[in-house]
Amino acid sequence: MKFGKEFAAQMVQEWQEAYMHYSKLKSILKDILRFKQKNKEPLTMATTTTTTKGALNRRASLYRAFSGLTNRYKPVSAMKNNEDEVILVSAVQEGGVEGDYQTMFLMSGEEGGEFELLFFRRLDDEFNKVLRFYKKKVEEVMLEADELSKQMNALTALRIKVDNPVVKGTDMVNLADKGFSSNSSSLSHSHPINGGKQGWTHMDVIQETEMSNEEEMKEIDDRHFRPAPLDVLDHVKINVELETPIATLRSVIKSSKSDLSFSKQELRTAEEKITQAFVEFYRKLRLLKSYCFLNQLAFSKIMKKYDKITLRNASKTYLQMVDKSYLGSSDEVTKLMGRVEDTYVKHFANGNRRKGLKTLRPQAKKERHRITFLYGFFSGCSIALIVAIIVSIHARNLLKSQGRDQYMVNIFPLYSLFGYIVLHMLMYAGNVFFWKRYRVNFSFIFGFKQGTELGYREVLLLSSGLSLLALAGVISHLDMEMDPRTKSFRTLTELIPLFLLIVVLSVTFCPFNIIYRSSRFFLIRCVFHCVCAPLYKVTLPDFFLADQLTSQVQAFRSLEFYICYYGWGNFKERSNTCEESEVYKVLYIVVAIIPYWIRFVQCLRRLVEEKDTAHGLNGLKYFSTIAAVTIRTIYSHQKQKTKTWLVLAAATSGIATMTSTYWDIVIDWGLLNRNSTNPWLRDKLVVPHKGVYYAAMVRVHVTHFSGNPYIFFYTAIRFSFVPRFAGVELCIETCLDAASVGHSNCAFPT
Predict the structure, then answer these.
(1) Are 719 and 436 in contact (CB under 8 A)?
(2) For position 126, what pLDDT does the model report?
(3) Using CA of residue 484, residue 485, residue 489, residue 494, what is the dihedral sign?
């Protein structure tokens, strides 16, 4: 792979604009090459000259002074300044501080020198851009490191307070004599307290090499030991209480802040949150280090290309400047990574360095061949079953049979539920594929536990397995009904769809650690949060799921039909009276508006908490959709359709369509920007193919206009530009605030 493609593939998407523009500089070098090829001498003369010069150079090289095998001996001529020097690089001083770098091209008077002069100007612009961004990010991580240090000091004090609830700040010197250390970089527990019992019951004690008292005191003196500032806990609020409906109602009734109880639950939650902050902070340091290395490599590559094209020797001078600059000489990030590793290993990995680094440097999940084989096998079987069903229908002429209408009214809606779910899972698999393809850190954005997120292969495996199960039920249903030997088992035949639904629900709620239990429970928890939307703090997974549920209205109606068909209908005779029931008609409307109602109350909750009017406008959008769905459904159920209801249905549907389309395309995606560098899109595009964005906009318009939002592939566009570090800058606060150390305070799209 060429370096340009490899360079683009290794970029951090959120920092893409801050990288060196390699392709732009390469295009200038191509202009220089074309100019030189256009103005060079004829080929025969050039070949002769080259051959002659090559022979002379080889002959002259035999008479050069020998420089020595170790390069320690240098002739006098090498000590002198190079008369063929091409460039001079200097840093502009601004207020005594080293500023931007400027390169002076000394050969601008030569033919074609204006192209090379332009190249070095653009090269300086790119280098100064990279240098400024790197300095800015280093300053940010240093500030974040200070905040994490404060949190570690508070955590240390909290650990001591939990284990010794009667201890006071004045007693810390005594605790220090007993082996407690509050320094965030040197937490230790060398001697047992409380009558020989372990002081920390919530976690394993960090085992360290035993030292004599003199050695221990020397180590403490070397580290400038300070007693643990327990009074810092007076200024700390730990929101470890689970965000439950009862807790929310209590906060509404009584808004006073509760004091710390110094319980083990508080300590455990605080440790989990700070652990997550450490992992993500270390990940940011690794990406910052990679940013520095990739840009240095890019400058090296482009300068070597310049030397090769112009036959000059400017790369050595320029790269020496790069090495001496802050970009090449700074080691703050490397040192900070070492300190983070030591702190994490000591305080959160029980001194086990291998275990700690395994958490800080998670390895890429190994792709298992059996998953690829199984989803391929299930997909092939599903396709074969579809073909078998089509052949069976045509062979038995079922489309013209007397029971065709009865089957489509009663049985088809039962199996269509699985079709909607499979289609949704296939689209989600596509989203995951594109997220990984364009290096979007969706596992952190959604708050998945490290290593438990499902890849697109796993999602395809589940979707193909469900489709195989549903299609097997369909073809067995047809065979049992048509086969004279099993035709008498009519009741058993009609129960096949219900049996499939029970199997799916049983697997979903299975408590055993099979079939991706962590992901299943994560989904169940998000669904529960959506149901209790106004009573739970809105996080990205919750409103993302609620947003997707709005495209599954027909699936919810199919689920309602299950209850009606098997509860009140005569399924043995394949008949139902659902359409005649007023209760069913009311529930038909309620079920359709539930997903939009969830999003509406989520927007209201965020409006109250964040005081942002955008959430209120977003809530009005969903309220308009609720009105449109309600009026349109009422109109469709009328036996004698009136013109008044027709006008109301058309008006509300038109308003909902326009507001939803505008909000999705302009507000959520940031597209249709007239002044964008990409026509009618936005400046920053994660997906390089612009046609994908135009197709997504057309699809959204058709989806809203048709009122059948079953497909949600456009979420890959919507969430593909969510920042990789969403929440890292926000999650590192000065206090041990569990709500701020994590993804709950992330700045999410509306």
Answers:
(1) no
(2) 92
(3) negative
- Judge residue 131's burial from the number of C-beta atoms within 10 Å of its C-beta, 0-12 exposed, 13-18 middle, 19 or more buried: buried
* Residues written for the chain: 750
The answer to whether 621 and 660 are in contact (CB under 8 A) is: yes
Spatial contact of 566 and 548, defined as CB atoms under 8 Å apart? no
Q: Which of 201-215, 235-249, 376-390, 687-701 has the highest mean pLDDT?
A: 376-390
What does the alpha-carbon distance between residue 495 and residue 367 come to, in Å, rounded to a whole number? 38
Mean pLDDT of 388-411: 80
Contact 533, 546 (CB under 8 A): yes
Burial class of 408 by CB neighbour count within 10 A (0 to 12, 13 to 18, 19+): exposed
Mind listing the pLDDT tens digit for each residue in 693-730? 888 777 665 665 554 433 333 344 444 333 333 333 22
- At 386, is the pLDDT very low, low, confident or very high (cuts 50, 70, 90)? very high
What is the tally of helices (H) and strands (E) in the chain? 29, 2
Tokens of 470: 């549903």
In the prediction, which pLDDT does 174 show? 46
Helical ranges in 532-680 per DSSP H: 540-549, 553-567, 582-610, 613-637, 643-662
**For the segment 314-334, what is each residue's pLDDT rounded down to a tens digit?**
888 889 999 989 898 889 999
Name the token pair of 52.
Answer: 């002659």
Under DSSP, the state recorded for 191 is: S
510 in Cβ contact with 715 (< 8 Å): no
- Report yes or no: 26 and 7 within 8 Å, Cβ to Cβ: no
Q: How far apart are CA 665 and CA 697, in angstroms?
A: 7
More confident residue, 692 or 749: 692
CB–CB of 556/564 below 8 Å? Answer: no
Measured from the Cβ of residue 72, the count of other Cβ atoms closer than 10 Å reads 7
Closest of 292, 295, 361 to residue 331, by C-alpha: 292
Please count the other Cβ atoms lying within 10 Å of the Cβ belonging to residue 358: 12
Average pLDDT of the chain to the nearest whole number? 75
- Compute φ and ψ for 314, nearest 5 degrees: -95, -15
Q: What are the CB-based long-range contacts (under 8 Å, 24+) for 520-523?
A: 522/448, 522/449, 522/452
DSSP 8-class letter at 97:
E
Non-local (6+) Cβ contacts of 220 within 8 A are: 176, 181
Measured between alpha carbons, how far is residue 460 from residues 254, 426, 686 in Å? 48, 6, 24
- Spatial distance between the Cα atoms of 313 and 122, rounded to a whole number of angstroms: 19
Q: How far apart are CA 252 and CA 658, in angstroms?
A: 36
Residue 565, both tokens = 């068909």
**CA–CA gap between residue 614 and residue 604 (Å, rounded):** 10
Per-residue pLDDT of 584-614, as tens digits, reads: 889 999 999 999 999 999 999 999 988 889 9
Res 409 pLDDT > 60: yes
pLDDT band at 172 (very low <50, low <70, confident <90, very high): very low
| Residue 18 DSSP code | G
pLDDT band at 195 (very low <50, low <70, confident <90, very high): very low
How far apart are alpha carbons 613 and 603 in whole angstroms? 10
Contact 18, 140 (CB under 8 A): no
Tell me, rounded to whole angstroms, the distance of Cα 51 from its chain centroid. Answer: 58
Residue with tokens 């890429």: 364
Render pLDDT for 129-140 as a digit per residue (tens, 0 to 9).
999 999 999 999
Q: What is the DSSP secondary structure assignment for residue 184, as one 8-state letter?
A: T
Tokens for 89, please give them: 């690089």
The pTM assigned to this predicted structure is 0.71
For the CA atoms of 480, 483, 487, 493, the dihedral, rounded to the nearest 10 degrees, stands at 10
Both tokens assigned to 128:
């100064």
- Other Cβ atoms less than 10 A from the Cβ of 690: the count is 13
Q: What is the dihedral of CA 431, 436, 439, 440, to 10 degrees?
A: 40
